[in-house]
Amino acid sequence: MYSSLRRGQIGSKVIALRRSSNVAKFRVKTVKEHPDPVEGKIKGSIPSWISGRLLRVGPGIFEFGNTKYNHWFDGQSLLHSFTINNGKVQYRSRYLHSESFKKNTAANRIVVTEFGTLGYPDPCKTLFQRIMANFQILSPNNEVTDNCNVNLYPIGEDIVVATEVNVIHRIDPGTLDTMERINLSKYVAINTATAHPHVDPDGTVYNLGTAYKGRPHTCVVKLPANGQGNCQDISRGKVICSIPGKRGVYPSYHHSFGMSENYIIMTEQPAYFNILNYLGTSMFGKAGGKMQVVVTDKDEKILLAVLLRLKDKSGVNLEAHPSPKIQSSSTLSISDGKEANDGSEDNHGVGASWQKLISSLSAVWSL
């Protein structure tokens, strides 16, 4: 997916997506939504004690009019619901009514740029508005895609859908209606956020974000929900830790991070976002062509950053404190895990791995 970039070539070779990464290669196609419940056909039987709702999200629309996406990450979001009750299953699906979806639908072509596809000129905008829109990614109130097709997670009693930008959408888990568009940048100073946060048992949401103001920083964001809250609690969100990037104007790409009861572990990988190339491609690239945004350096090693999540006796989370970055020559699969001292592993298979990592790095921490 990514082309390599040798050290010292920043700005001279910034190819991210190969042309072969297109919709035809992945054999994907647009599917219709089913807003009304569809009764599923059951083979065998479902135990009566199984009851609940399974929610999923992923790409579902791959073309508007005669324009098509170059990459399957770009497909417009389609929400899925499987409701299980009394041995029966009902399925329904709805398109997420994001601003990207509405603009593309109104224009009947792709006018919002996605991960691998440069949008066509929006006929509803003037030439000046089109030019200025290219710089919006540097603003907290940016107009980049809000096509949240990656993940769903709870904020208190609410369910939101997310992608790797600063916008999330609150949905109705029963009808799958799009209820509210929420710009996280209005509450916390970030430009992007991962789609894979972690949720504490008390409902507190932790996530990684990137702030572009001045030198790019990786930020740990805390959204307190207190178990009984909802999306309104986002107004009490805050950045509890900020780590400056080591590449100047090239922020590191973060897909996910790890968290246990007491620790947060993030990686600064040799894959990073080239803002200057994004702006150049947005302004001078061919409409409908591939985007060139993510750059890799095959000679660079991964850096681990370990953050200590302190808790006082009342169980209230205190601010995290960054430890020194540790150079590693291999990748680390990031997930949530338990700090098992007995060598046992949790259902993710990472318990013992976390304990080994913590033990090996404890000498450089100020615990």
Q: What summary fits the major beta sheet? A: 5 strands, antiparallel
Assign the structural class, choosing from mainly alpha, mainly beta, alpha/beta, alpha+beta, or little secondary structure.
Answer: mainly beta
Radius of gyration: 22 Å
Low-confidence stretches: 1-24, 329-333, 342-352, 357-367
- The helix tally amounts to 5
Q: Tell me the number of strands.
A: 22
Bin the helical content: 10-25%
The outline comes out as globular
Secondary-structure map with pairings?
Elements: H1 23-26, E1 34-39, E2 52-61, E3 63-64, E4 67-68, E5 76-85, E6 88-95, H2 99-107, H3 127-133, E7 151-155, E8 158-162, E9 167-171, E10 178-183, E11 192-193, E12 198-199, E13 205-211, E14 217-223, E15 238-244, E16 258-259, E17 263-268, E18 271-273, H4 275-284, E19 294-296, E20 302-308, E21 321-322, E22 326-328, H5 351-361
Antiparallel strand pairs: 1-6, 2-5, 3-4, 5-6, 7-8, 8-9, 9-10, 11-13, 12-13, 13-14, 14-15, 16-17, 17-20, 18-19, 20-21, 20-22
